[in-house]
# Entry
Amino acid sequence: MSAGFRAFFAASMLVLSTWASVPALAGTLQCVPFAREQSGIDLHGNANTWWGQAQGRYDRGHEPQVGAVLSFASSRSMPVGHVAMVSKVVNAREVLLTHANWSYRGGVERNVRAIDVSPNNDWTDVRVWYAPIGDLGLRSNRANGFIYAHAPKPVEAAPVLIAAADTSGPAIHAAF
# Structure
């Protein structure tokens, strides 16, 4: 082979290998697969469907717990919602979140501040750290609550009582 052909072939292979790897690099990390990986909560689909999907599969509630996923509702600015994992509970109204695709497209943020600003202290209205301004976001975000990484506890059934005939007394005979 000539040196020119070898150089052309090598350059072509380099270009082809770059094209083959571009799709993996071109995708933007989204909050859903990141939250699923971090929390172990095996739900799929847009973030705004997680709260409903979790019903009966995972416990849900309004008390922050480490490892739980905070489910944000759809809004004009977040049409498909958002999910973020609780990495630390600071107190009843403040947590640290680990999540993707919030402050920066495809970016991951770890241990960022989120506070409950809901009037009933139930985590249905939340302000979250927004890196571009270096502070909590200027607006609050509607949230559904927390999805806990463990499956719901089974409902304990009452013991089954079986009726038995009382054979200790006189027998009652029915006449037909």
